[in-house]
Amino acid sequence: RSGHGRRDGWERGSAGGGPESLFTFSSITINPTPASAAAKVLGLSGRPGEVWALIHAAGLYRWSGGAFDRLPTFTAPISAIDLKLFPGGPTFILHQSQVRTCRETCTESQNFRNVLPPSVDDLFNGWCHSGTTLWIAGHDGRTGAGKLFRGDVTADPFTLTVASSNALVQQPKSCFADSTGTVWLVGADGASRYAAGSTSVVGIDLSGGPAATWHGIAGLELSPTSRVAYLLGGMSGYRWAELGAPGWRVWPQTNTSGARLLAGVVLSADEAWVVGETSFPTGPALLWLAQGLWRTPSDPPSLRNAFSLHAPGPNELFVGGEDAAGNPLIFRGLR
Fold it and tell me: N or C end: fewer C-beta atoms under 10 angstroms in the chain?
């Protein structure tokens, strides 16, 4: 894409709305059901044959075709943020002040080792990867200044180095990386880009709309010279921005049914799925981009809020969230 496409609204899905409308969602049992009402599904990740869920205040759960069963030796402290599974066995759990890594038999807690940040003042916020390179968006705990860290998931032992000591945004929350080593970062106050060893600010055009706060970023590399990506945020309803030339541009705001968007996955140049916290008990907590519009699924999963997504492929989607009472829920969509 050389610039911004025309995206100017949202609507509810309907028959004939494209292949996206063929997703059928079903709830997956979480075994045992977490006792805490604060047990949010913070992260979902998988590799062939399995999907794991990180549930706040409950632990790690694994799905291989039946229920999400708890891995009994794991706990999920408040500092746990997300998890990533890579083909062949490497498993990573992100915490505010460390990364837990494992190379094999990762269903046992004792097989994980703790990798600390390069400095005792460094804190981690979110991450992304391209190929075997893992990027972590973080900040200096004393000043809030953004930092970017890098590691090779195939390295044994896994280590982290500082790619950028000044990410040019305060406390970056998330990132998107491509195969060229370019990394886009987003913080509540703005966005930046890391490439060829240097970092630069990337502007966000509000398109005449109100100010926004940003919470996540989702992207897909289409080729070494082409990519599609979206900033996800809130204030005055759900907010989103598209990456183009020269930077990010916010789409006209027409959806006030949600408080903020949090996470997303991009499946193709014309299909993305995003989740967030809603303003109403009935949502929508899940939206998709199709045919130039943000839409709600014709048969959406019953979620008050949604926090995480995982797409094993173009025809399968896992969504993690909660109901109106705060109970954790995980849905699987197939088409």
Answer: C
